[in-house]
Amino acid sequence: xxxxxxxxxxxxxxxxxxxxxxxxxxxxxxxxxxxxxxxxxxxxxxxxxxxxxxxxxxxxxxxxxxxxxxxxxxxxxxxxxxxxxxxxxxxxxxxxxxxxxxxxxxxxxxxxxxxxxxxxxxxxxxxxxxxxxxxxxxxxxxxxxxxxxxxxxxxxxxxxxxxxxxxxxxxxxxxxxxxxxxxxxxxxxxxxxxxxxxxxxxxxxxxxxxxxxxxxxxxxxxxxxx
Length: 226
Known about the structure:
It is a single chain. The chain has a seven-stranded mixed beta sheet with strand order 1-2-3-4-5-7-6, sandwiched between helices. By secondary structure, it is α+β, with helices and mostly antiparallel strands. It has helices at residues 3-10, 21-32, 38-43, 47-62, 94-97, 108-121, 124-128, 150-164, 177-185, and strands at residues 11-15, 68-72, 78-87, 133-141, 169-174, 189-195, 218-225. Strand 2 (68-72) and strand 3 form a beta hairpin. The protein starts with a helix and ends with a strand. The protein has one domain: Aminopeptidase. 39% of the residues lie in helices and 22% in strands.
């Protein structure tokens, strides 16, 4: 029996909509993504700093109807998800939209992280000459279901969907060495990278990343032509 067959015997793949946000996606992101996010760890951001950013990003991603999740068949429990966004014009990133959203209370630290992401991602749309690209967003897997191939299969299904709806590129902002290795294994090409310790906030000129994690030293932007 193949690994894929074993996986689909136990888990159901679903394409997510905004109706899935509460309570499933919101709670899952809070529990299994924010705790492992590298940017939060190296800035020393608090849970409150993180929550506004990632809950908003998750909610916005679902509007594109391009995200997938696995649910355990026996319990109907959400066990893994991948949130993707679609970009068909030169537009603001979902993260940058937070700054002008009156419903999201942002700390100074959260605003600094947003400025970093906006600066680093830049104008990918023009750089790649893309007509439509999929931003491969946050991926998280329940800790009790790790190392079963769920994350990899979500990535594979996302790429299949991107081709089906006419994307010419995939883009990934990889903040950790783990996602960077995964991207390279999946055929993504490095576009640019930044050494976290070199970055200073664009407005204050203060160093943003104060905590050193030896295994996570760079942020990297990857793309893949499909």
